[in-house]
């Protein structure tokens, strides 16, 4: 493949953009390819190279790059009516009513402008309504670029994971290993009266996709209720991907007090939301005392796009299609790994997938794990299947980024550029795309 134009664009970008990019995950080695346009399940770069796309905007593009006609019509209609108003519109009410009907935890919503803003607002709300300061988070979980959760360490002490954050922020955050019920209970025994909430992804979706072991999410629900703390599910990635319109909480049968959502709720446009029990969400200003506001919140174009986006999924067999292809892809990769790299582990569910370059995996998988790790104890690979964020960090992360990703790109497959970010199948993908991708995996591995 020729990448001369992308290289030239990157050279220009280095002069005017920090690091040449506007998000650090785009800074691939030796330089990123620049996308010119999307086409269904594909992207075409500035040099005319065509790739099967499994990044899908890091998840929100459920339909790929060609949204259904009702979505496009709604976007055009509301964009033509005016850019924004600084006043409420009917479409934000309609969209909130739709989400409330389908997501188990949602009785009331507050729309915001990003997944990060949603989790920031949820943490503030939890502290405001409980009168407590401490937040329990999962090691390896990601909740956006916010001071309260950009921490590292363990229950015995946390520190900021990046310069620019005062250490005092980390004093109020307690990181624990995902899937470690014992540690969570110990933390609550010591700090229970000071803990406002447990904030977790129901699946660690920014860390190679780590499934909860049986009973873990239920344990979080129980321990928070016992101590008067809130359970917050960050469904910025899993929302309307895992579990269909009921999200991951519906799939797992565990209902949190609050849920945060990201760009899929706006059809890929910039948006986020906090939803949950009405008695909690109504504590945001002006109904309550917990300040939250934003000029662009509930933007009519985004609301229209998101409403038609999710309504189309409710009226068509979107999830049946994407989940079938996701299962086919994970099963095919599992078969390839058994022959070529049995130590590696396929993870994911529904339309999400990833291959974790684990170091000591088993050569066999249980029937229940034939299309990706399901944390089944009887599976020969159970001990090697990642249980925590640290398990993924200990994988061959350099091999993924420096060798595997490059090889897949050269074979015309666009994957997320590191070991940690999830990958996604869209409604635009076809069986032919899956077969092409599996051939690329065979060659690259």
UniProtKB/TrEMBL annotation:
Cofactor(s) needed: pyridoxal 5'-phosphate
Domain of life: Archaea
One of the GO biological process terms: protoporphyrinogen IX biosynthetic process
Catalytic activity as recorded in UniProt: (S)-4-amino-5-oxopentanoate = 5-aminolevulinate
Protein name per UniProt: Glutamate-1-semialdehyde 2,1-aminomutase
Record's keyword terms, sorted: Aminotransferase, Cytoplasm, Isomerase, Porphyrin biosynthesis, Pyridoxal phosphate, Transferase
CDD domains the record matches: OAT_like
CC terms in the record's Gene Ontology section: cytoplasm
């Amino acid at each position: 493949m020729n990448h001369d134009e992308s290289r030239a664009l990157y050279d220009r970008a280095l002069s005017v953009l920090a690091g040449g990019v506007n998000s650090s995950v785009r800074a691939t080695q030796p330089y990123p390819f620049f996308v010119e346009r999307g086409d269904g399940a594909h992207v075409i770069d500035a040099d005319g190279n065509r790739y099967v796309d499994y990044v899908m905007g890091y998840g929100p593009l459920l339909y790929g790059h060609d949204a259904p006609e009702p979505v496009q019509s709604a976007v055009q209609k509301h964009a033509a009516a005016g850019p924004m108003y600084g006043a409420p519109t009917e479409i934000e009410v309609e969209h909130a009513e739709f989400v409330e009907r389908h997501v188990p935890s949602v009785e009331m919503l507050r729309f915001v402008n990003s997944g990060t803003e949603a989790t920031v607002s949820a943490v503030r709300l939890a502290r405001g309504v409980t009168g407590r300061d401490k937040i329990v988070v999962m090691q390896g979980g990601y909740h956006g670029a916010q001071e309260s959760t950009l921490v590292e360490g363990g229950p015995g002490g946390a520190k900021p994971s990046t310069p620019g954050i005062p250490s005092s922020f980390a004093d109020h955050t307690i990181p624990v290993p995902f899937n470690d019920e014992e540690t969570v209970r110990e933390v609550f025994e010591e700090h229970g009266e000071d803990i406002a909430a447990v904030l977790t992804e129901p699946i660690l979706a920014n860390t190679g996709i780590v499934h909860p072991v049986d009973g873990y999410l239920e344990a979080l629900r129980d321990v928070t209720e016992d101590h008067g703390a809130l359970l917050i599910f960050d469904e910025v990635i899993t929302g309307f991907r895992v579990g269909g319109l009921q999200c991951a909480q519906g799939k797992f049968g565990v209902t949190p007090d609050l849920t945060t959502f990201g760009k899929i709720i706006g059809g890929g446009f910039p948006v986020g939301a906090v939803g949950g029990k009405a008695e909690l969400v109504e504590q945001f200003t002006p109904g309550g005392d917990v300040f939250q506001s934003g000029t662009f919140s509930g933007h009519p174009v985004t609301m229209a796009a998101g409403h038609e986006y999710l309504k189309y999924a409710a009226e068509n067999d979107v999830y049946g299609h994407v989940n079938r292809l996701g299962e086919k892809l994970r099963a095919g990769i599992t078969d390839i790994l058994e022959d070529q790299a049995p130590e590696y582990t396929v993870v994911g569910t529904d339309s999400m997938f990833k291959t974790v370059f684990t170091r000591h995996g088993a050569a066999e998988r249980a029937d229940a794990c034939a299309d990706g790790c399901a944390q089944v104890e009887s599976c020969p690979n159970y001990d090697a299947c990642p249980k925590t964020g640290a398990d993924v960090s200990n994988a061959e992360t350099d091999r993924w980024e420096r060798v595997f990703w490059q090889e897949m790109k050269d074979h015309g497959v666009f994957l997320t550029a590191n070991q940690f970010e999830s990958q996604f199948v869209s409604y635009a993908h076809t069986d032919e795309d899956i077969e092409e991708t599996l051939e690329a995996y065979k060659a690259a591995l």
